[in-house]
Amino acid sequence: MATNDAAGDWVLRTEALMKRFGDFTVIPGLDFRVRRNTVHALIGPNGAGKTTVFNLLTKFIQPTSGKIYYEGRDITRLSPADVALLGMVRSFQISAIYPELTARENVRIALQRPLGTSLHFWKSDSSLSVLDGRAEQLLESVGLRAFADARAGDLPYGRKRALEIATTLALDPDVVLLDEPMAGLTMGDIERVSELIREVARSRTVVMVEHNLSVVAKLSDNSPIASFAALASVTSRAAA
Predict the structure, then answer these.
(1) Closest alpha carbon to 135 in 161, 154, 112
(2) What is the strand order of the sheet 232-238 is part of?
(3) Where in the chain is the domain with CATH 3.40.50.300?
(4) pLDDT, tens digit (0-9, with 9 covering 90-100), for 105-162
(5) Packed helices 103-112 and 157-169: angle between N→C axes, nearest 10 degrees
(6) With respect to CATH, is domain 1-87+173-240 assigned 3.40.50.300?
(7) What gap in Å lies between CA 197 and CA 97, rounded to an integer?
(8) I need a labelling partner for 112 at 20 to 30 A (CA). Which of 97, 131, 193, 214 fits?
């Protein structure tokens, strides 16, 4: 990957980012740069601080010190909601879906969020049907069109992960942070979700925490561009 330190080339970066919990330093001072329209993987042993980095970047926890910049803007003290509105959203290690709702309804709720109506559950189904077309496009994009009317809680685990990616994409993010997207998946599901991540990366920046090194090798290149915590490292590749 060619080196280019132009400020506009970095969609996300940190400066001396540190997080302590009491006397324990989890992140000792991270200088981290994410190039626009690339795929990045954070790798390292359990406890190295990978998920903590995600929580810091998306503001679910506040740093002890240091700075976070998104599109050149200091977002260090913004709220998680404000960061998401700017265009950076994340998934979680545990699939975050509404199990009692259908796959379509899960995506439709996510589509309501940019409109400020995601909590308007009292609205009639017909008044929200205008979102169905886009919801079904997103379900199609993750291979779930045939499961649109299925109860989300009844989907196999791999398809639940795909549904979570669909709800993430419904927020129309520029940067997608995926926390262990392959955790608990079968070999077939890993191939399916890997291909989905490739598709997502065609038009977005992707940062992922992942323990499956064969997946990392396929989706990212092996050149470390930063390091944090004990043995963790960051790899990236330019998106195809």
Answers:
(1) 112
(2) 88-90, 175-179, 205-209, 38-43, 232-238, 224-228
(3) 1-87+173-240
(4) 999 988 886 555 444 444 545 455 668 888 998 998 888 999 999 999 999 988 888 8
(5) 20
(6) yes
(7) 19
(8) 193
- How many residues belong to the chain? 240
Query: Over the stretch 15-50, which tens digit does the pLDDT of each residue have?
Result: 999 999 999 999 988 888 888 888 888 887 777 888
pTM: 0.77
DSSP at 147: G
With a cut of 50, say whether residue 166 has pLDDT above it: yes
- Tokens standing for 71? 């599109």
Residue reference for tokens 């329209």: 37
Name the nearest CA neighbour of 148 among 105, 112, 177: 105
Question: CB atoms < 10 A from the CB of 203, how many?
Answer: 9
Task: Provide the edge-to-edge strand list for the sheet that holds 10-21.
Answer: 24-35, 10-21, 65-70, 73-74
pLDDT, tens only, 176-209: 999 888 887 888 888 888 888 888 888 889 998 8
Instruction: Return the half-sphere exposure (C-beta side, CA atoms, 13 A cut-off) of residue 191.
Output: 2
Secondary structure of residue 166 in the 3-state scheme = helix
CB within 8 A of 41, min separation 6: which ones?
207, 208, 209, 210, 216, 219, 220, 234, 235, 236
The burial class, CB within 10 Å (0-12 / 13-18 / 19+), for 64 is middle
